[in-house]
Amino acid sequence: MSVREFVVLGTASQVPTRHRNHNGYLLRWDGEGILFDPGEGTQRQMLRAGVAAHDINRICVTHFHGDHSLGLAGVIQRINLDQVPHPVTAHYPASGQKFFDRLRYATAYRETVPLREEPVAADGTLAQGPPYMLEARLLSHPVESFGYRITEPDGRRMVPELLARHGIKGSDVGRIQREGRLGAVTLDEVSELRTGQRFAFVMDTRLCPGVDALAEGCDMLVIESTFLDEDERLATDHGHLTAGQAARVARDAGVRHLVLTHFSQRYTDPAEFERQARAAGFEGELTVAADLMRVPLPKRG
Question: pLDDT band at residue 102, thresholds of 50, 70 and 90?
């Protein structure tokens, strides 16, 4: 059975608080797991959330500030300690190679699992296959930062009424799906287009073209909203977004489910992020992330 859900391990910006761990997020995509931005304490949060090292197939780091990457050392060593039975691929800004190297070999340990390093140097496709296409887009932050987007290939949905009209049933349904034709009947005549799911992960950034490109048409957009709107100047100066800015991006991009995260410690009322996002005109499903939350991806359209 396929499972697609977003597991929140930590939501704090810059420093952890009593209630928020440093960043860390796992996307379960059917049989694969993509770990985003493992900050300090990610190993322990994984344990609390029921996430195992075996669940990780890819690690995607947006940038090398500590709250997004200091947990790399522990996660990589845990992958090796647990002898994960499959290779793990790591994506991160190529400009931060020295930081990745330091974290990967921060202490002595025995390497037992192949870790493929695939640094990101520019916008483009990082992986493409049947499960999904993984892309990266450059963002705008004081250090080089990339956001990530996952797109499922489009497919076809069988329409029972059309199948019945053409007298196709039983094993012939599977046959026409596999072969694209059954006698004079084509697959297009008994099915309709099913748009693949789209997911984007956007962390530390100002508004920029990369944000819009990543968000366009997403079923779920996970995006930072470090500041509230009254601190917009501070957000811009430090390379971040406000709740209202993030919500307007989602509104204009046609996002179905918006997940806000990466909150500054200066704010004590999480509900204010939701209020400002709604005031900005976003009408879709909205989640203000909390540590250890599980958020299912919207059902396919």
Answer: very high
Whether 122 has a pLDDT exceeding 90, the answer reads yes
pLDDT of 301 reads 62
Residue type, 10: G
Catalytic residue positions?
Answer: 67
DSSP labels, the chain = ---EEEEEEE-BSSS--SS-PBPEEEEEETTEEEEE---TTHHHHHHHHT--GGG-SEEE----SHHHHTTHHHHHHHHHHTT-SS-EEEE-BGGGHHHHHHHHTSS-----S-EEE--B-SSEEEEESSS-EEEEEE--SSS--EEEEEEPPPEEEE-HHHHHHTT--THHHHHHHHHSEETTEEGGGGEEEEPPPEEEEE-S--S-HHHHHHHTT-SEEEEE--B-GGGHHHHHHHT--BHHHHHHHHHHHT-SEEEEE-B-TT---THHHHHHHHHTT--SEEEE--TT-EEEPPPP-
Alpha-carbon span 63 to 150, nearest angstrom: 18
57 burial level (CB within 10 Å; 0-12, 13-18, 19+): middle
* Arithmetic mean of pLDDT, 233-259: 98
Q: What is the pLDDT of residues 218-244, one digit of tens each?
A: 999 999 999 999 999 999 999 999 999
| Neighbouring C-alpha atoms within 13 Å toward the C-beta of 151 | 18
Q: At a CB cut-off of 8 Å and minimum separation 6, what does 240 contact?
A: 13, 204, 205, 206, 224, 226, 227, 262
For the entire predicted model, the pTM comes to 0.93
Q: Whole-number mean pLDDT of the chain?
A: 96
